[in-house]
Amino acid sequence: MVNTMESKSRKESILIKYAIFSRLLVLLLTLLWRSLLQPYDTSAALNPPCLYHKEDPPPLLVANAASRSLENSIVWDSVYFLRITECGYEYEQTYAFLPLLPFFISILSRTVFAPLVPLIGLRAVMVLSGYIVSNLAFVFAAIYLFRVSVIILKDTEASFRASIIFCFNPASIFYSAIYTESLYALFSIGGVYHLLSGTSNVAVLWFALSGCARSNGVLNAGYICFQTMHQAYEALYQKRRIYLAIQVLVAGFLRCVCICLPFVAFQAYGYYNICHGHTLDEMRPWCKGRIPLLYNFIQSHYWGVGFLKYFQFKQLPNFLLASPILSLAVCSIMSYMKSRPELFISLGFQATEKEKRSAARLYSLNDAVETSVKSSTNEGNRDIRQRKPSKKDVTVTKAASESSSPEKSGYFSADVFPFIVHLGLMTTTAFFIMHVQVATRFLSASPPLYWFASNLIASPKHNKWGYLIRSYCAAYILLGTLLFSNFYPFT
């Protein structure tokens, strides 16, 4: 046990070095391409006065090489995030960008890096703060991915390989830019870690924060739903404890509500700012809907996002750009489905008893029972401790265990199943609804991709696939730093 812990700590220390090195590599490549090529669009450095803060004194303007270099590095969505940080939500389309990243940038630029404002100006300080937030969050996301992988895969080497692949993933440029990918990865993967560690309430907080970074953070409630479903089943049908089953269901429901609440609150905030106080004729179309969901309207109206809307011949290059990540996702799902078809048919209920009692805590009711025992009366406690399983219970459990599929480990263990379902939902959304080229970064925080890639690389039968995965990551890091940093379309 001691040797195992030392091995994990050693691997984690090495992983931190790789994560930092990968960020420095991306930064170096970005600087290289910026120095060799002229950006396609140079208007990002323009910064008109805030729309709603005209009475405030104008920010201090400083023009030197450092400030110009930082401000000229702002590209694509980074422009929106920095504008929101400085001026708030001025226009309807800006509500597509959730507030967590601007909040962290604002905190850092007004506290830790505030002394730099007289030297390089407020906007340049905000840019610097954004880069610090994204890159620091990425390093911690890599650490949490390793810890989650160790719990799920139960293989330190495979977990380390998966985490290294994540450090050099094909969407690497977005994890170093002023984008939400790093924060989303940190809070979604960190939330999973806390869920697997048994601290469900902390996991809910982290999942809720992931929903403050990206809208798809609300899908992390699916992990709570999966756990709740299995725990409630065990309480009701195996332990015959109706009250405990109700307790588990209510707790799961409240946790899911808490995860979705920040996103819903932000939609309400947008409704209040845009729709409140206007007559029916003055209201925007979405304000009049039965469910006035601002986010969906913005995505559809301003960016043309919708079911099959991107299925056009002229978008073929974008489908080709996204094809590697979509292929990897589909192969990982199909490979798992082929190995464990019974889990898909039964929604995980045909996992073996040993798998259900694994350290991942996704199927077992152990924690819920312990919590219930502590909160029960002394008489109830004695009854639970003293009650012995009947022969019928033992027979049923044994029969269920024997009828279940053989236990599998690593990527094909039952603990991976909810992650596969989550990945499947994300992949379907990326392919049929979103701008398909965004799939590269949209799916890049999904752990099963790296677990599957790690499994392929380690397999002697799949040497060429390991080479392809490495080449794919290297090519997209080079391509991403070249195109994205110079304001050319990438993903």
Write a brief caption for the model.
The protein is 67% helix and 0% strand. The chain has 491 residues and is an all-alpha fold. Helix 22 packs across helix 23.
Give a structural overview.
This protein is mainly α and 491 residues long. The protein has one domain. Helix 4 (100-110) crosses helix 6 and helix 6 runs parallel beside helix 9. It has 23 helices and no strands. 67% of the residues lie in helices and 0% in strands. The longest helix is centred in the first third of the chain and has 35 residues, at 2-36. Residues 367-405 have low confidence and may be disordered. Belongs to the PIGV family. Keywords: Endoplasmic reticulum, Glycosyltransferase, GPI-anchor biosynthesis, Membrane, Transferase, Transmembrane, Transmembrane helix.
User: Ends: how far apart?
Assistant: 44 Å
Helix content: 55-70%
Largest sheet: none
* Integer tally of domains: 1
Please compute the radius of gyration using only Cα atoms: 25 Å
| Structure classification | mainly alpha
Quick one: how many beta strands? 0
Task: Give the overall shape.
Answer: globular
Keywords: Endoplasmic reticulum, Glycosyltransferase, GPI-anchor biosynthesis, Membrane, Transferase, Transmembrane, Transmembrane helix
Function: Mannosyltransferase involved in glycosylphosphatidylinositol-anchor biosynthesis.
Pfam families: Mannosyl_trans2
Region (Disordered): 373-409
Q: What attributes characterize this protein structure?
A:
mainly alpha; 23 helices; transmembrane; 491 residues; GPI-anchor biosynthesis; transferase; alpha-1,6-mannosyltransferase activity
